[in-house]
Amino acid sequence: MAAPFTTHHLLVILSVLAACSIVSNAQLSSNFYDKTCPNLQSIVLSTMKQAVINEPRMGASILRLFFHDCFVNGCDGSILLDDTATFTGEKSAGPNKNSARGFNVIDTIKSNVEASCNDTVSCADILALAARDGVVLLGGPSWTVALGRRDATTASQSAANNQIPSPFSDLSTLTSMFSAKGLTARDLTALSGAHTIGQAQCQFFKNRIYNETNIDPSFATSRKVNCPFTGGNTNLAPLETLTPARFDNNYYRDLVAKRGLLHSDQVLFNGGSQDGLVRSYSANNGGVAFFSDFAAAMVKMGNISPLTGSSGEIRKNCRVVN
Ligand code: HEM
User: Does the Cβ of 149 fall within 6 Å of ligand 1?
Assistant: First the structure.
């Protein structure tokens, strides 16, 4: 005779389900590949070193790739997938198209890693390590990268279009888009300090330099030279004016001086809730707090919904699903 279904049965089922969900949310760990790929970290670092020597901007480009990966369905390497005749992924989404770069460097790291330990390390983890190394190589803080992410077998162009903030966003939009990823306003302000390195295209700051008023006039004039009112949309300018190839706290000095390049940069210092934090990061010794907040926020960003356990796969080629 079958036992009647009781509350006890329900509790057993619920606790089994809870245990499963803990397993599928398994924590990442810094020693994940210690046995299976002991040279992983030195392979990533040496390949990044060469890439940054060839072109310092590459440290910035890879850091941005990681941000755009993590903000779209978690840090799962989905941004690395190429579009095909039957698959439209994230590379051709608005925030990435003709803008995201550094894919060849990730390919080089992946093939160097495969040569040492094949079918073992995910592209998502390679990107997480490469982003950290790029920051370090340009003079920024270091942090321990937790590992064990697996690679997505899908990607979402619409999520990339909707969940990566636009440079025309106001502070409230930025705050809520970061909050949707479990990141605080403080994380937003610290992570935006990534714009201490790298470059932006004229089309993303044209409105700011021609139409906005909370901008240092001599800065606006100097940026107009290479960003004409008509045309020049892909011309580049450094995101930070003083030391654009060095990871330091000068981004915040720019903001305090109304020299933020993007609208989304200057909103962090425009009479709102982040003014005090920006001012403190900009101080002579403010780089210490910035570095430690940035590193902590990168760890948090790197933990956004990873695929772990038997979810996803270890891609053989970062550009294509196995
Ligand atoms: C807060 C919202 C953010 C907005 C609206 C934003 C927007 C942008 C835009 C429009 C560019 C220039 C792209 C181009 O011209 O092709 C850019 C560049 C960059 N972003 Fe952000 N970003 C944000 C946050 C972040 C975060 C959180 C990071 C990393 C932690 C980051 C890292 C970078 C880097 C390093 C570059 C330079 C890339 C290069 O030179 O190739 N950004 N961002």
Answer: no
